[in-house]
Specification:
With about 290 residues, the chain is of the alpha+beta class. It has nine helices and six strands; from the N terminus they run E-E-E-H-E-E-H-H-E-H-H-H-H-H-H.
Length: about 290
């Protein structure tokens, strides 16, 4: 079964409560050229960062993904303990630097902020780190699943919009093909009328055919129409295949635009020019929506 089409905007949340305290997770994402992951982890949850990043990369390939995990410890784990031996070592090192003039003497408050001086009192006894990490990752998985569902809901809506734009391009291609089919005779009639105006005696049939053929070759858009048909088929195939396909659709929309531009530049008929210009506008609308696809 093909993966569903996914957008890049969404939100998910989850929480867990137990003897370890309370964990709240919020996951949100917006459009991005690549996958940009930003984490905000509550105190005591630093150990889950690597696993959490792996979980995000397993679900998403594009978008700016922000995950916030807040943690409230259980009652009785709010006290602090001071590692006096470590604090003493920091103080002695600070004094040596101060005596040599390399730095100003640090205050007690500054020393207390150094790593390892203050530790949670009885935290390990009340909460096993493995239990806390497992609960955090379980809640994060639920929040990320909610985020993924929201992105897929956006993708379902995008699929309908993109198909409308592709169908519009397809209709304009058919209109351009009709103009192109009638183009050789229109060119011949236009050349004959011009020469009849300039040459009262008229133009012989062979010369008229040569002039009309030369102009028709320059105005031939069959290759562009064939490539447009191939691009339309490819776009529908990408939509059916699901995400990740945003980058491919973006590249394809550039190719659509290239063919529409060539169609306009070669157009030797007002109707063909109108179809080409309308196609350029439709391609611009397609490309704008493609930017939202994962």
């Amino acid at each position: 079964m093909a993966a569903p089409l996914s957008g890049m905007t969404g939100f998910g949340r989850a929480d867990r409560s137990g003897p370890f305290g309370r964990i709240d997770v919020e996951a949100r994402s917006v459009n991005g050229k690549g996958l940009d992951v930003r984490l905000r982890l509550g105190s005591g949850l630093e150990a889950v960062e690597t696993a959490l990043r792996d979980m995000i990369k397993a679900r998403f390939s594009r978008g700016s993904v922000n995950v916030t995990i807040s943690y409230d410890a259980p009652e009785g784990a709010a006290g602090v303990a001071i590692d006096e031996e470590r604090l003493r070592a920091y103080a002695e090192a600070a004094k040596r630097l101060s005596d040599t003039g390399l730095a100003m003497m640090a205050s007690a408050g500054e020393l207390m902020l150094l790593k390892g001086v203050i530790a949670s009192d009885d935290m390990d006894a009340l909460v096993e780190p493995e239990t806390l990490a497992a609960a955090a990752l379980e809640a994060a998985g639920e929040a990320l699943a909610g985020l993924q569902s929201a992105r897929e809901a956006e993708g379902a809506a995008l699929a309908e919009v993109l198909e409308e734009h592709i169908a519009e391009i397809e209709a304009l291609r058919a209109e351009a093909a009709g103009c192109a089919a009638a183009l050789p005779q229109a060119i011949r009639d236009r050349v004959k009328a011009k020469f009849d105006e300039l040459l009262p005696q008229g133009l012989d049939a062979d010369r008229l055919a040569q002039e009309a053929a030369a102009i028709a070759v320059k105005a031939d858009v069959r290759e562009e129409l064939d490539r447009l048909k191939a691009h339309i088929d490819t776009a529908r195939g990408l939509l059916a295949g699901g995400s990740p396909c945003g980058r491919k659709l973006d590249f394809l929309s550039q190719e659509f635009n290239r063919e529409a531009n060539t169609l306009c530049s070669k157009a030797a008929d007002p109707a063909l020019t109108r179809a080409g210009l309308a196609m350029k506008a439709a391609v611009d609308r397609l490309r704008e929506q493609v930017q939202n696809v994962e």
